[in-house]
Amino acid sequence: MGIQLDREVNLKDAGVFAWLKAGAYGPHKETINDQKLGLSLVQGSEREVIGNAVFVTYFAANQRKYDLIQVNPINGHERKIQSMSVLIPLEYRLKVELETVLYIAETALNDNQRNGLLTEYKNYPAGEDPLIYAAEAIKRLGINSDQFQVFPRYILSRDSGPVAHMTEANALEGFYSSSVVNGDSEWFTKHKIFLKLVSEEFYGEYEQKKEDPTYEPQRNGRSDDEVLDEVEEIMKKGLNCDKDYESVRHPVMTLLVWPEYKVEWYMQGVRIGCVTVYLSLPVLKTRRTEQILYANAVLAKNSADATAIQIIEESLLEAALLGAVVGVYLWNLSAAVAAFKVSFEKLVVVRLVRAISCLDAELTLIKKSTGWQ
Question: Which of 36, 101, 169, 319 gives 343 a disulfide partner, CB atoms 3.0 to 4.6 angstroms apart?
């Protein structure tokens, strides 16, 4: 053990997020697992590591929660369509300092050795080589390096922040006031659908929204038709009820620019005094994505007469334009797909006065994203 002159520090730590949640008032000192060291902390042994402090950028997140509301035009009553939320990245500038603390093997040292070790530790002259100083102290006291450890621990303090990155939250709130749905820029207003802010609170680590590659395919240089052809081939294999199929597809809405965030963690080595610290630090990356929502269906060719095709086309669009579908697909695609399927099947049965056994319908959100920067 002896003296530790390099440290790997994981700042992706629950204690750091708890400190930020509490407002980051005062310093945050690293918590050391004493049992893992197998030694006992000498109370009052804290010593500042002399050297320039390091300033780092750090990211956490708030969570803003909403309810998507639709107002009944007859009685004015509000109905909640869906609860949703967005994470807002919070940027901090943190100051990183180090102090050392002394751990000893209490039962292995006599009083003279214990007191001598503490004296040597407290009298270490900053600037000298700590390894040479420790070797000489060990020799004078008649102990070995397994009986103590000088452990460097970090101290964080908030220099500035948090600064909230609001681009995605602003885009979400603007989505219900200016998005074009089926060619109509006032679709949400006409259907009396709006977003109601419920709460905002500290969340912790920023987590990127997970994508479903089946229903959220990237364009990757392909045309929309090529992407939909691929999706519909998967749908046909899932049906497996005929040799030949017909496809029906309809664009529902387009978002030309949608902002996205993600946080990646990387290691950065810094030197404070005689100690080298390897810090895991977050970096915020952004990209912009064009998104087009399609409603598409496949059915057995022997069921695809002109009347059936027309009814399926109408039912696709009508089911996709439910508030519970178009209003929530960006934030809960699985819920949007479930609501869409139920509505679509009912519409087809009512209009055809029969069910089509070999028929499937889906929502497909095609994306074209820039690289993360």
Answer: 319
